[in-house]
Write a structure and sequence with these properties.
- The structure is a single chain.
- The strands form five sheets. The chain has a five-stranded antiparallel sheet, covered by helices on one side. A five-stranded mixed sheet has the order 10-20-17-13-14, with no helix packed on it. It has a four-stranded mixed sheet with strand order 16-11-9-19, with no helix packed on it.
- 13% of the residues lie in helices and 35% in strands.
- It is mainly β.
- The chain is elongated.
- It starts with a helix and ends in a 14-residue tail after the last strand.
- Strand 6 (117-124) and strand 7 form a beta hairpin.
Length: 309
Amino acid sequence: MIENILEVNVEMRRWKGILLAVTAGIVLVSVFRCTWNPFGEEDITAGYRQVSGEVRLHDGSSPEGVYVWLEVFKLGTKTDETGHFTLTLPPKSSQTSTSGLSGFFNLYFYIANYLLDSSQVGIVEGEFVYDKADINKEGKLYAPKMMRRFLRIETLAEPTSVFANYTGNIEVKVTLTATIDSVTVVVPKSIGGMLGAVLLKRSGSENVYIFNSAPLIESREKFLVGKTLRTIGMSFNLLQTPLGVGTYEVIPYLLMAHEPIPEDLLKSIGPNVEKLGPDYLNIPFRREGGQFEVKGLSKNFNGSSLIGR
């Protein structure tokens, strides 16, 4: 009887030892799974799919509308009126890899006439790694991103105000000035060094009107702009495309060739953003001037149109 009890106790201790060994193995595997990190030996915090930060412009311009883009994931967002942004990764199930992507990736900050800037973020299995690369423990950029302008664009429409039945020409002058170094500017549809087209964006609406000086021309002239002012221009009239009463911004059709931009970055803004059309306005720029106003109909005693001053 005693021998049977001893045998039972021994058997129970044997199974208890096996159970403890298995449990320890499971715990050990779990620890290694939780703490393994290709970015270093420190533990990582899982479950984070958002990063945020702040962008400022060196010249004091409004930081609203800066385009923030994460390569490979091809995710983009824009800063708000205070320059802040938040970028959220898609769920792992919708990423390229079923377990989520891993690696170091560039987070770009883009305005067409400002120097392209970037920060680096670490991602493990489709989630951001906080307190790594340029992201702090709260998932934010360590410091505001400061962007510098390389080209100043000033637009003047003369006259600045006309009546809706004005039949004369409106002259557009665009002054370009490099602020850091010489800049290569591309002017599509240019003839003889002139501006090829302008877009008029009506205030308070999504209406965009295009005035093209040479509709059949597909040329792309390049200009090297330095710190000495360079002026290009064109003219248009309301006989081509009548405009309703209201205020407008005159926007010159220009492209930048100052530095290489990731092709996928531009594609993420829109498929046709560099072509002449409303989508061109999705490219973030900082421009000055360009105010233009159309007033109600007016006639002088001869019946000819008057400029609305």
